[in-house]
């Protein structure tokens, strides 16, 4: 994940070229959109996970307050 954050789109495209051993320049626009969509999904998933963790902590705090109160 850090590799993606530290890489430019050109770096990623070159790595894909090397990996698949084909020139992906003609598909550059489509690849850029796919990468942006996947990064957005990952970001939204991380936000959802953080929200779930925060909700779970609130529930634990309420439960502890009821038990000790």
TrEMBL record:
Stretches the record annotates as Disordered: 43-69
An annotated GO cellular component: nucleus
Xref: SUPFAM superfamilies: DEK C-terminal domain
InterPro entries found in the cross-reference section: DEK
GO molecular function: DNA binding; histone binding
Positions with biased composition (Basic residues): 59-69
GO biological process: chromatin organization; regulation of double-strand break repair
PANTHER family for this protein: DEK PROTEIN (PTHR13468), EXPRESSED PROTEIN (PTHR13468:SF23)
Name the UniProt record assigns to this protein: DEK C-terminal domain-containing protein
Protein species of origin: Aegilops tauschii subsp. strangulata (Goatgrass)
């Amino acid at each position: 994940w850090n590799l993606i954050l530290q890489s430019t789109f050109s770096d990623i495209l070159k790595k894909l070229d090397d990996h698949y051993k084909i020139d992906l320049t003609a598909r550059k626009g489509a690849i850029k959109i796919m990468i942006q969509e996947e990064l957005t999904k990952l970001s939204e998933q991380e936000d959802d996970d953080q929200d779930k963790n925060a909700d779970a902590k609130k529930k634990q705090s309420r439960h502890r307050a009821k038990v000790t109160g």
